[in-house]
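Need C-alpha cells for this chain, all 522 residues.
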Amino acid sequence: MATEIHIHHGPLVIGAGLAGLSVALNTAPHATLVLAPVALGVACSSAWAQGGIAAALSPEDTPKDHETDTINAGAGIVDELAAKTLTEMGPGTVHKLNAMGAPFDHKADGSFVLNREAAHGLARVARVGGDLAGKAILEAVVNTALAAPHIEIWEPAFALGLIRSDDETVIGAVVDYGGRRVEVYAPVVIMASGGSGGLFAVTTNPANLRGEGMAMAALAGAVIADPEFVQFHPTALKFGLDPAPLATEALRGEGATLIDKTGHRFVFDDHPDGELAPRDIVARAVHKADLNGGAFLDAREAIGEHFPAEFPTVFASCMAQGLDPRVQPMPVAPAAHYHMGGIRTDIDGRTSLKNLFAVGECASTGVHGANRLASNSLLEAAAFGERIGIAATTDLHPAAFAPDTETAIRPLLPPVLAPADLQALRNEMSHQAGVVRDEAGLTALLGLVDRLDLRYPGALALVNARLIATCALHRRESRGSHYRSDYPQTDVEGRRTYITWAEVQNRAGEPTECSSQACLTS
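Here are the C-alpha cells for all 522 residues:
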C-alpha cells in the first residue's frame, strides 16, 4: 500500500472520546487534527459511562473531602498532587459541561441531583437521566467540537504507531485513514486512545479498545506506569453478551443490594460498608458468589416501579434479555472496566518522550492509584483534557515545524491477530489476569503471549497483554484491584510500577527482578 505524507502544523490528537475532544477544545487557535477511529460518540468508553461525574458540588462537600476519598480508594499509591489538582478542578469542570449543554439532572432550586457511590463519603456524583451521563456529556462535547473552526476530524482514522525524529522525540504517527496509509507529522502529539478492556473476554468496554495507545507509546520507548492495575466493575449484567451490559453503581447508591442464591447480602461478610465498599472488595465478593451459585443485584425494593424512568439504560438491557428488574433480581459478575495503568505522565500530560502527551484512560497520572474512585474517570477525561490542551500548546510554534521525513524513525506496522487467536487471548486474560490472580495463571498467560508473538510479532494487543501480565506477576502483594491469591498481603510501603518495553523484554524469565527498586519505585 502506498503511503502518503501529511504535514500538520498543529496538535495531533489520537482519539475522539471525552478526553481527546476536551483536549482539542482547549488548543485554539491552533489548527488541531483529531483521529476518530469510529463515528464520533460511538464505541468509546466515555459514551458508555453510566454512573455520572464526581465533583464537590454540594454545600456539605469540599474538593479536599473528594481528594481524601480518592486517595483512600487508591490503596496507598495515589499521586497526591494529581488527586488535589483533579478534585479542585471538579466543580468548575462540571459547571462548564453544564454550560456546554450536558443535561445534568437538577433539583427544583437549580442545584445538581447527586448520587452517592462506592467509597465516596457522601453524595457527589452528578447524573444525567439516571444512567445516561457518559452519552449525554459526550454528545454536548461532540457538538461543540464539530462547531469549533480550529478542529478538523478524520473519521474513520486510527494510529498504527508513533514516528520519531530520534529515540526521545515524537514527531507524528502512521495512520490508517479510511483504508489509506498516511504518515501524519505534527509538532505535538496527544494520545487519547482509551483503555484496555477489550483485551478481556468479559468487559463493559467497547471490544475494539485493547490498549493500543499504551502499546504504541511503549514500543516508541515511553515509560509505562502501573499496567497491572485493572479495575473490574462488580456488577456487569451476566447475560453472556460481549461487551457485557453495565449495571451502574448508582443502583447500589440508591439502595439496591447484592445477594447470593439464598438471598444473603454477602458483601457484608467482607466489609462493613457492604455494597458501598471500595470496588475491588465488592468485585471479589461478587466473583466468589458467582462461582458458588450466582450473584444477583436486587433493586426490587429500592427502585421497583421507578426503574424505567430512573435507570433507562439498565432497564432496557434487562428487558431485552427477558428479565424485568422491577420484579426480578439481576444476575451479575465482575467485568474489566477501567485501566488505572497507562503511559506515565505528569499532571500536565507530559510523557517521558518529547512532544508526546497522554490523557484519559490511556494515561497514568497516578490519580487513581491501585483502585479508581467511582465516577472519577469522566472528571479526569474532561478536567485533565482541558489542562493538557492548554499545556500542550503553551509553547507551540507551528510555523517552525519542519520535520525531516527522510530520516524519520518509522514504526514497524503491527500485525493484527486473527479473530480466533484474539478470542483465545481475551479468554486467557479474563481467566488468568482477572479479579483473582496467581503465579501459575500469570505464567500460563505469558506462555500464550509468547506463542502468539511468534506468529504476530509486535501486535499491539500482545504488547499490552505482556505489560499487564508481566507486572502483575512481579507485584508479589495484593493492592487495590490487583489481588494475588498466592500473595494476599499488602506491603507496608506502597510502590508504583514504572517500566519500559525494553525492560519488559530484558526481564523475560527473571520474575524476581521486577520486584526490585529498578522496576518498582516509590
